[in-house]
Amino acid sequence: MGQADGEGTRANEWYVPRRGPRRFRLLVGLSFYPYSIMNASYVLIGSLIAPVDRFDRMAALAVAYLLAVGVSAHSLDAMAPNRPWGDFLSRRQLAALATAALVPSLGLGLYLGVTFAPLLLLVGAVELFFLLAYNLELFGGAFHTDLWFATSWGFLPVIAGFVVQTDTVSLASIAAGLFGFFTAYVEISASRPYKAIKQEGGGSSPLASKLEAVLKGIVLTVIAAAAFLMAMVLSR
Q: Which of 58, 78, 146, 151 is 20 to 30 A from 134 (CA-CA)?
């Protein structure tokens, strides 16, 4: 059983399809779709606690994050020297995929910022910095840490969701952002050892099962929080 079958890569993690062509399964896994949906849910949470309910802005920003994080950031991360997803895509193909997703994401963000919420341009610039610095491990990997991950992946998306509605930041948005920060911190803290165990072939160990349960639980918690807020807003 070689790397093509998952050994030494992330192909054995819980969200990767077990059936289908290898390239398709790895491409789905590369999107980290449960975590990407979790990330977009932070945007929804930030928007839904705002006093203004513009679902078009919220949806557009959520799509921008899905493209930027779900496709672009994860494609850049897959270009790392250790090739966490193996060699099913070349570095050139991964770079093209990252660019193809990042361009429309930036376009959406610029449109929302220029048209509705200039403060979003600042948040977006910080997020773009982290997208590149974290996933490409720039500056010697100084920003490739759990702390910066939780900040850029959990805290700032909540703030962005609130800003796109109001063009301001409030205490409520900061409190919601801290929810994003700590849930993202739990996710990345459990994900790193889980990934290591899976890559070493210990996927059936009790520790792997516990970490997998934590990861699934935190994803569902964030999605459920967004769904609850959506239900509350729609029932007004």
A: 58
